[in-house]
Structure formats: C-alpha cells, structure tokens
Design brief:
Chain A: GO terms for molecular function: ATP binding; ATP hydrolysis activity. Chain A: This is ABC transporter ATP-binding protein. Chain A: Keywords: ATP-binding, Nucleotide-binding, Transport. The complex is a heterodimer of chains A (301) and B (119). Chain A is of the alpha/beta class and 301 residues long. Chain A has two domains: 215 residues, Rossmann fold (3-Layer(aba) Sandwich), CATH 3.40.50.300; 79 residues, Alpha-Beta Plaits (2-Layer Sandwich). The N and C termini of chain A lie far apart (57 Å). In chain A, helix 4 packs antiparallel against helix 5. Chain A is built from twelve helices and 13 strands. In chain A, the strands form three sheets. Chain A has a six-stranded mixed beta sheet, with helices on both faces. Chain B is mostly helical and 119 residues long. Chain B has two domains: 66 residues, Winged helix-like DNA-binding domain superfamily/Winged helix DNA-binding domain (Arc Repressor Mutant, subunit A); 34 residues, no CATH class. In chain B, strands 1-2 form a two-stranded antiparallel ribbon. Classes of the chains: A alpha/beta (301), B mainly alpha (119). At the A-B interface, helix 6, helix 8 and helix 10 of A face helix 2, helix 3 and helix 4 of B.
Chain lengths: 301, 119
C-alpha cells in the first residue's frame, strides 16, 4: 500500500580512512515521519547529504524516488533539506529567501509561509546576517514546512529557537502533515520533545544502524528497576541489562525487553520500583558509555 | 501520555475512559484521527492505530464518509471488561502494599469502608 521513497542497501561513505557511513541498509516509506537519531558524528548528516545528492556514495546502492538522487533533477525537485546552519547570500533578507523558495519547491505554499512568519514573529526585511540565531533557524523551519516537499529533511533545525517556538514548529508540522501527508525526516538531539511525533525511529551510531523500528514498538521496550541491590539483581538475573547504577545498597538497572503484568507483580512483591524508560533515555543507554557490566578498566583494576 | 506503554494503547484507553465516564455517549461521534493527533501532539498514524484498536474490539464503528461513532452497548462492554480487570489492577497492588505495612485483611476492609463513608 505504501510506496518506498528511499531504498539504501550497503550504503557507505568513506573520507580517506574514515568511514562515516558503514554499509547501512534501510528504507523510508511514503507519508511517514522518521526520527534519524544518534550522537554527534554518528553519521546522520552524512546520510541525509547522500540522500539529497549533495555528496556521492563510496559504495552500496541508493535509490530516491526510484533513481540515483545526485543525477536526477526531477528527484532533487521533490526534496527539501534544511541544514543545521543553512547559508544564504550575504545581502538576502527573509523576504528574499521566501520569494526564491518557489523556484526550488513546486509545492510551495506562500500563504502557509506567511502564516508561519507571523507565528515565529520573523522580521522579513532585516538582513539575514543580522538575524539572531533563533530567527535564522526560523527561516529554515518556515522554508522546510512551506516547501511541502514530498521528502523533507530537518537536520537539527532549531538551534537558538526557544521552547515556545519549538512547540509552534511541532504543532504546525503535525497539522500540516495531517493535511498534506509526506515523508519527513527529523534529525535532532531533543528526542523527548519529538518522540511522540515520530512514527518510526532509525538510530545511528558509528555510521551503522543500531535500531530501525516503529516508535510504538520502541516505547515500553525497556524499563528501569530500582530498589535494594540484592532484590534488583534477583529480578534482572536472566534479562538483558543495558544500564546499571548503584548507590550504597541500592541499585537501578535498566533492562531491554517489555515487562508484562506478572513481571510487575513480581517486582512489587520484591519491593522494587519500575520506571518507564523514555526514547531519549533508551538511546543514551544504547549509544552512551553505559555500564552494562564492569568496564575493561574496572576489571583490570 | 507516559513512556511505559505504546501510545496507541493510551489513545484507545483515553477514548474508552470518556465512554465509561459518559463524556462520549453511545452513538456519539469520536474525534477524527487528525484532531486526536493535534490535541495529544502525536503522530496521526499512532492516533489511527488507537482508533483501529477500538474498531477491532467493537467499541466504535465506522460510518463511511462521516467518521467513527460509539457503538450500541460499548459502555456496558467496557465496564464489564474493567470489572474483570479490577482485582488485578487495583486490589492486588493494594494488598502487596498493605502486607508491606502490616495491615491485615480486617483493617484493610475497615479502611475501605471508612473511605466510602467519608467520600
């Protein structure tokens, strides 16, 4: 029923001896909101640059709307990429940027752009280099939303945007996406803020895919168990542990795997507290230097 | 919305709550998935999944081209299901905590009764 917009297999990008993207396989389906998550330097931006034809792959296969993106103008016309630090000509104003936008985006909605300008209180006539960091981000967000491009990428789009402005972005994105479904890829560190907007999550670490799952499958797929250390250890004995903290005789252990009702009763009878793990916490556990057991250094000491 | 369970289940439960509480009466139209998505700030596909779960359990039914409506007998069905769940969801955790505090069955019953009279 859904069409595949992006198909990558064995996709790689190397810079000399450094492998930024390491033979990843994934696909993006039409009309979904994806979260492309991971730490700085994980390879998220490189993947988006490959998908938008800004750089060439070193290996593997890549199809965007059925073609090699870098060589097809009609593919590039359907893409919008909003970078973390979008550059504009020096003497451009936001008004100029919005005037130029319909040349690149065939679905451009000027009325929607005007409403967003009012929402973000963007000064249209001020030169872009005189804008604050947040106002500059607002220009990118407005272009990204009003482009209505069939495949839109937001790469950390909101540096300097305050909490109110970010909420406006999320609300307008959801409302407009509902009216005009399209494929949207959000790359962000503010995972808790966007977690509920995402339909699917792709987690990148060291140029590889750690997790490629529906957001609803991820939610509740891990839990933190806390209480007296001995009871905690008994409870987690045969479960996969992805995080561990202790304080005196107390322990707090994060396990991978959902807990059912019987598990919860068993934990309660052992006097243990069970807390949910948010998507952000889960990603910190999966990509951080979290201690799933003693580290090599600790073993040696 | 909490992080411990899939969002679509939580959406279905909120609508079920509204039906049990009488906020949504039988034959009433429930909000569209886009309205639910905007209100709860969630992905519309997630909202749709929640509504579809209600369709599968016969709590709401689709009227083509109009929307989703609460079915006949939906409230009774939900209450029956929740009564069956009541002991597991509420009584068992209560007893675990009572035992931890040394509150015996008679004292617990007395507490429940006095709470009833006060409220």
């Amino acid at each position: 029923m859904t069409d595949t917009v992006v198909r990558a297999s064995g996709l790689s990008k190397r810079y000399g001896s450094f492998t930024a993207v390491d033979a990843v396989d994934f696909s993006l389906e039409d009309g979904r909101i994806y979260g492309l998550l991971g730490r700085n330097g994980a390879g998220k931006t490189t993947i988006m640059q490959l998908l938008t034809g800004q750089i060439f792959r070193s290996g593997g296969q890549l199809e965007v709307f059925g073609h090699e993106p870098a060589e097809h103008a009609d593919v590039l016309r359907r893409l919008c990429f909003i970078a973390e630090s979008q550059r504009y000509p020096d003497d451009f104003t936001p008004a100029d940027a919005l005037t130029a936008a319909p040349w690149f985006y065939e679905n451009w909605d000027a009325g929607f752009a005007q409403r967003l300008v009012a929402d973000f209180r963007l000064p249209l006539k001020r030169r872009i280099k005189k804008l604050s960091r947040g106002q500059l981000s607002a220009v990118g967000v407005i272009v990204g939303l009003a482009s209505r491009a069939p495949l839109t990428f937001f790469d950390e789009p909101y540096l300097g945007l305050d909490a109110v402005a970010r909420q406006i972005f999320y609300d307008r994105l959801l409302a407009d996406y509902a009216e005009h479904p399209r494929t949207i890829v959000l790359s962000t560190h503010l995972i808790d803020e966007v977690a509920n907007l995402l339909e699917h999550v792709i987690l990148i670490d060291h140029g590889r895919i750690l997790l490629d799952r529906d957001a609803d499958e991820v939610r509740g797929s891990a839990a933190t168990v806390a209480g007296p250390a001995a009871a905690v250890e008994e409870f987690v004995a045969d479960r996969p542990v992805i995080g561990r903290q202790s304080l005196g005789g107390l322990a707090s252990v994060t396990i991978d795997g959902a807990l059912d009702r019987d598990d919860r009763f068993a934990a309660a009878e052992l006097g243990l507290e069970i807390a949910p793990v948010s998507l952000q916490q889960l990603i910190v556990h999966l990509t951080g230097h979290d201690l799933t057991g003693p580290t090599a250094e600790e073993e040696a000491a | 919305m909490d992080d411990s369970r899939p969002l679509f289940i939580q959406i279905a439960e909120r609508i079920e709550n509204d039906i049990v509480d009488g906020v949504l009466e039988e034959h009433a139209q429930i909000p569209s998935t886009n309205e639910l998505a905007a209100f709860y700030r969630i992905n519309p596909a997630t909202a749709l999944k929640g509504v579809n779960q209600l369709v599968e359990t016969g709590i709401v039914a689709k009227r083509r081209g109009i929307g989703m409506f609460v079915t006949d007998g939906a409230r009774a069905q939900l209450i029956e299901r929740r009564q069956a769940d009541f002991a597991d969801r509420y009584i068992r955790p209560l007893i675990i905590e009572a035992e931890k505090l040394g509150i015996g069955p008679d004292q617990l019953a007395a507490l429940v009764r006095s709470e009833r009279i006060e409220s």
